[in-house]
TrEMBL record:
It comes from the Bacteria. InterPro entries: DUF3460. This is DUF3460 family protein. Pfam families: DUF3460.
Length: 55
C-alpha cells in the first residue's frame, strides 16, 4: 500500500462525512431517471447547428 493510499484510508476512517457527501453528490448529478420519450421529443425539436458559427 502506497503512502497516498494509507493517507486516504486513514482520512476517510476519521472523516466518514466525506463519503456521505460524495454519495449525495453522486445521487444529485448521476442517479437520475431519464424519460426516453421526452428525450426523443427534444431531439426532434432541436434546431440544426451550422458547422461554422462565424459565417
Amino acid at each position: 500500500m502506497s503512502e497516498f493510499d494509507r493517507f486516504i484510508h486513514d482520512f476517510l476512517a476519521r472523516h466518514p462525512e466525506v463519503e456521505q457527501e460524495r454519495r449525495r453528490g453522486w445521487d444529485i448529478w448521476w442517479d437520475q431517471r431519464v424519460d426516453l420519450d421526452e428525450l426523443d421529443k427534444q431531439r426532434e425539436n432541436a434546431l440544426p447547428v451550422k458547422p461554422y458559427v462565424y459565417d
